[in-house]
Design a protein that fits this description.
This protein is mainly α and 71 residues long. Helix content is 73%, strand content 0%. It has one domain (5-70).
């Protein structure tokens, strides 16, 4: 099973907010897929401790994702 932005979000992303949320949830979903022994705590800690640089990375990747979708 592969992880995709649509699968991470639970639906097709439509706007920037959706794409950013999908990017953050993508990282969370990867932890579940990698067989983390306690994925819920790991995911919660990841989201809770997301720093500004990680958030900016997610926004940047989300903008790239949006651009690719419109091409």
């Amino acid at each position: 099973m592969t992880v995709s932005l649509e699968r991470a979000l639970g639906r097709k992303p439509e706007d920037l907010k959706d794409f950013v949320m999908a990017r953050v949830l993508f990282e969370v979903q990867k932890r579940y897929m990698e067989g983390d022994p306690d994925p819920e705590d790991t995911a919660r800690d990841y989201v809770k401790h997301l720093d500004n640089e990680e958030l900016l990375d997610a926004i940047s990747l989300a903008l790239e994702d949006m651009k690719e979708q419109t091409i």
